[in-house]
Amino acid sequence: MRALLARLPRRPWTAVLTAAVLSASALTVLPANGAETGCRVDYTVNKWADGYTAQIKVTHLGPALDGWRLSWTYTGDQQVTSAWNATVTQTGGSVVAASTSWNGVLPTGGAVEFGLQGTWRSADPAPSDFTLNGVPCGGDGTTPPTTPPTTEPPTTPPPDPDCGSAVICSDFEDQTGPAPSGDWRFTAPDCQGTGTAAVDTAVAHSGSRSLRVDGRAGYCNHAFVAATADLSSVGPVMHVRMWVRHTTALPSAHVTFVSLPDTSQSGRSLRVGGQNGALQWNRESDDATLPEQSPAGVAQSRPLPTGSWQCLRFAIDTTAPGLDTWLGDELIPGLHADGVPTQDIDRQWLARTTPPRPTALRLGWESYGTGDDTLWFDDVAVGSAPIGC
Length: 389
Known about the structure:
It contains one helix and 27 strands. It has about 400 residues and is mainly beta. The protein is globular, with a radius of gyration of 23 Å.
């Protein structure tokens, strides 16, 4: 699954004391082609029998950059599986790491660091052909251009903030009354309590309307607004984007505010919600959670901020048990699952290997004991291509 890149190192970082190459089983530091007026890359790797993590530091010596892309080539059989503090894509041996919204500005003499995790089988030599914005980090006195090159597009295009060909694309401006109608219907799966749902004309992310759900505490207190669209053909990766706002911090008890009926679970749902104060995925059929609800696992998720609109995005692989989740521009490490189980993150989730096949989208509130909340949803989209904020 492309662009499903964010997870934590399996092992803690070891302190870097020198720039010498240590033993193959220990930490390695490789400065790459320093230049007085160019750039320098420190590639620090920690590897084991079939995997590795790399911490990469880019020191820029030329004119200030507004956005950067670092490229290199793996000459072994390394495969990047996740990354943090950069958007990393790989095609064959070619790897590109692009700046995020919060670390794109790189002043003269400034440095930026990001990390990645990967696998290898037969060979994993460190790369040495780093280029910054298309210019080698070499000793010829050249400096990277001050903006990323436009002639070489990224391997994976950035998500489109518009809906494009999405199966669901709704800002709820077509809602004419106080009750959800048209492509949206109120539903209370399994059982109904005192929760309600309505079209709100006082609070909206865009336009003048949104969906409002007044969620109530109590076991099996379900209140959802379901899209009528059939999502069974969306894929192979299903991309979901929504803007959500709520009033009360996620509780310690388990709650759900997004539910996706899943044919691989005989109609039971993939659920997005919270537990222990942080966002989590939950699988209804076996109650598996992503991340695991250990202190270390929960620490790798994020709370859902209150009192402001938040862009929440999901990528659900329907061909393998893979998931990614973004809050704004941040790809959340604890809400990432791929084919390599990681303790405290996706080991429990990957115990079930059947790929998910969501068929519908429901937005609302489901409490399993405690926790009232009021939520608004707006600018909701579901399609087969990435959809940005």
